[in-house]
Design brief:
The structure is a single chain. The protein is an alpha+beta fold. It is built from 5 helices and 5 strands. Strands 2-1-5-3-4 form a 5-stranded mixed beta sheet, with helices on both faces. The protein starts with a strand and ends with a helix. The model has no long low-confidence stretch (mean pLDDT about 95). Bound molecules: FE2/S2 (inorganic) cluster (2 copies). One FE2/S2 (inorganic) cluster binds next to loops.
């Protein structure tokens, strides 16, 4: 199968990777770049745990071809903290016990960060609607919603 080289920014660092046309962004992130914070859950776009940001928008990396990231800025959960400081969304998830097994957490946090960047003061309904594609089998969602709303309250 013919390969090509894609160039993109991953968590602020320039990367060049040789990919096949059918390689997925999720596999490039986890298997090539060894950033395993982004999880492989369902693989069919149903759970949201593979969510990363591409050019600031949340995307399901299990449904995104790696070639689509060519020229883009990709941010994973590993890239959210800056200068050793957790992102306010990460802090809030800890403060509100919004993490149990943690499998959904990277996707939840990346999606929540995108929500707050897009809608800085969301209502509870807007939070629930935005996160509807992220499934959690542990928390019952209430603590996650509280965490996101607390970040909005602080304007962070
Ligand atoms: S692994 Fe991508 S949506 Fe489930
Ligand atoms: S914390 Fe376990 S699936 Fe969400």
């Amino acid at each position: 199968m013919k390969t090509r080289t894609i160039a993109f920014t991953l968590n602020g660092e320039p990367r060049e990777v040789v990919v096949r046309p059918n390689d997925l962004l999720l596999n490039v992130i986890r298997d090539h770049e060894l950033l395993t914070g982004t999880k492989y859950g369902c693989g069919i776009g149903e759970c949201g745990t593979c969510t990363v940001q591409v050019d600031g928008k949340p995307v399901l990396s299990c449904l995104t071809l790696a070639v689509a990231a060519d020229g883009c800025q990709v941010v994973t959960i590993e890239g959210l903290a800056e200068g050793g400081r957790l992102d306010p969304v990460q802090e809030a998830f800890l403060d509100h016990a919004a993490v149990q097994c943690g499998f959904c957490t990277p996707g939840m946090i990346m999606t929540s960060r995108s929500l707050l960047d897009e809608i800085p003061q969301p209502t509870e309904e807007e939070v629930r609607e935005y996160l509807r594609g992220c499934l959690c089998r542990c928390t019952g969602y209430a603590s996650i919603v509280r965490a996101v709303l607390s970040v909005a309250e602080k304007g962070a």
